[in-house]
Amino acid sequence: MGQKRRIDLLNGARSGRDVDGTLLKHYGIKVEAPIENPLGPKTCAWCRTVNSTSARFCQSCNAPLDPASASEAMEKQRRRTELVERFIDRILQEAPNAGENVIREMRKELAELAQ
After folding, report:
1. Would 61 disulfide with which of 47, 70, 72, 85, CB 3.0-4.6 Å?
2. What residues contact 100, with CB distance under 8 A and at least 6 apart?
3. CB-CB contact of 41 with 48 (8 Å)
4. Residue in 36, 35, 33, 57 with CA at minimum distance from that of residue 47
5. How far is the CA of 28 from the CAs of 71, 81, 115, in angstroms?
6. For 34-66, how does the pLDDT look when each residue is reduced to its tens digit (9 = 90+)?
7. Which are the contacts of 73, defined by CB distance < 8 A and separation ≥ 6?
């Protein structure tokens, strides 16, 4: 490696430039995108808020921060929807004429949300 190239790399290191990445690229070694540190703070993909390491949901927008939390949130939402549907069915069975239009509208909105 020539003297000028070595000086450029040293100057890059002082400026905070990615010297390792530059060297690897120079020698034809492909580097994948860095993986987020699992032990560091978690950044929300939706609102970009930085959350604590142990957080499962964003402190700002309540979005899930990891796949397990996302799966859990989806399952809870599915159970809520199921409960509301059972509630509507029970109302229709016990009082078929009471608020049929309102119940139909609620069902329609629930169906749209489930899609």
Report:
1. 47
2. 92
3. no
4. 57
5. 39, 53, 46
6. 555 667 888 998 899 999 988 999 999 999 998
7. 57, 64
Residue bearing tokens 């790399």? 9
19, two tokens: 């010297």
Determine phi and psi for 42, rounding to 5 degrees. -100, 130
CB 30 within 8 A of CB 17: no
pLDDT at 5 over 70: no
Tokens of 95: 């009082």
Element housing 13 (H / E): helix 3-15
- The domains of the chain are located at 66-115
Classify burial at 106, counting beta carbons within 10 Å of its beta carbon; exposed 0-12, middle 13-18, buried 19 or more.
middle
Sheet strands (E) in the chain: 42-43, 50-51
Rounded Cα distance, 52 and 43, in Å: 9
pTM over 0.85: no
